[in-house]
Amino acid sequence: xxxxxxxxxxGTVWQLTDLLGRSMGRITASxxxxxxxxxxxxxxxTMAGIQQGPHASLDAALAEIERHTRGVCRRNPGExxx
Length: 82
Description:
The chain is of the alpha+beta class. The protein has helices spanning 43-46, 58-69, and strands spanning 3-8, 13-17, 23-31, 34-39, 73-75. A five-stranded mixed β-sheet has the order 4-3-2-1-5, with helices on one face. The protein is globular.
């Protein structure tokens, strides 16, 4: 399952959606090297058992999502930075 990643809320929250725009949850950064995955919406079942964190970086959290879902995490079209 492919996931679209969109930054929100001042660089400490990233929204996760599927290719149809349905919410899959979010990633939050509470401190340096403290990135947590919060599955939500229809992804609660898809991401059951995922290592939620803390992850050392946003990239590490995205890699965990890719491993678990066997998909690809992509930036929202038009977003240059994560």
